[in-house]
Amino acid sequence: MLIIHHLQRSQSERIIWLCEELHLPYELKIYQRAPLLSPPELQALHPSKSAPIIQDGPITLAESGAIFEYILTKHNPTSTLVIPPSAPNYPDYLYYLHFANGTFQPALVRYGLVKRLDLPEEEFSVRLAKRSFERALGILEERVGACTWLAGGEFTAADVMVVVSLKTMREFIPYDLEGFVGIQGYLERVGRREGYRRAKGRGDVGNHGVPT
Ligand SMILES: N[C@@H](CCC(=O)N[C@@H](CS)C(=O)NCC(=O)O)C(=O)O
Q: Where is the GST C-terminal domain (predicted)?
């Protein structure tokens, strides 16, 4: 059985949600941030020292995108949550699946870091970080304002990848979604999904909240 090593309030929320949407059995090992980074027991599992990490028999794997690909190809015989190459929205599926961790999450982290440094607004690094974050947020707003889900009409793994950056990560790097009606509606749709609710129910057990 798959083991998911889950650091609470982290990107490993995705893996629990993915398994819940696929109705895939898994064992969950929960770690608390110590106080902000991962604890030594989690760090010992993989050179990445960060969550998510999964184990599947002798295999230990880190990195959200790699774990998604592993689970979706090895443990998903009916190809649920995946758009096939023959479908017209296959490129959209691929783009948003990779956009989540290739663009949006890094842009958010850079934006959060420069905000913490409290540099002057006109500083190049501040302008660059702000511009790439706003651009990435704008891409999402436009997409989910026009389509129910990122790949189009169907809920897919791309949605499971992106949502942690729109929800949980805002507890660490607050940003305002006022006026982002597309994203607000999208998050409401996400919140109504049984798989999402089950994942939160399991992953948030004993959650200590965001460390300061
Ligand atoms: N790109 C990696 C990022 C992993 C990552 O940064 N995880 C954070 C949680 S969101 C973590 O474990 N932080 C604690 C630490 O690095 O000690 C992935 O998606 O798996």
A: 86-212
